[in-house]
Amino acid sequence: MSPTAADFSIEAGAESTLPKCECCGGVTRIVRAFARAVLLVRWTVGARHDAEVAVSVGAWCNADRSPRRLVALLLRQQPNGPAFMVVDADLARWDDSSLLGTALRSEDVLNTPLASEVFAILDAAGAADLRLANWHLS
Predict the structure, then answer these.
(1) pTM score, whole prediction
(2) CA 128, CA 61: separation in Å to the nearest integer?
(3) Cα 7-31-110 angle, rounded to 5 deg
(4) For residue 8, what are the contacts with CB-CB under 8 A and spacing of at least 6?
(5) Over the stretch 5-48, which tens digit does the pLDDT of each residue have?
(6) Number of C-alpha atoms within 13 angstroms, CB side, residue 74?
């Protein structure tokens, strides 16, 4: 049975303002959240380009890093709501992706139990973390 958002409890993590976006000059924010994974979301306020999302699934704290897997996604605001697209994690711009785990290619994620888990985590985060407010980022 596939996991659902109800299977995950979301804990809000740190929030930071990054240097202005190189392409549009807008304020860029990054928020962190925790479930059975570490969730990182980076977006430029008011920009028309996609937000970047990283979901690192695996053990944390003092646990062995080796089983961690990094799934990267782009979040695009569509007229009918937000849409996520899994992308190759090794092409994503996360500072220390080795800490986040093995960078997975999109074809290694799509149509797998891991994809179901990642999307359930995203559903839970969008409902529980007010900074992500159902993924309508501002």
Answers:
(1) 0.89
(2) 22
(3) 50
(4) 35, 36, 120, 121, 124
(5) 888 889 999 999 988 888 888 888 899 999 888 999 998 887 77
(6) 13
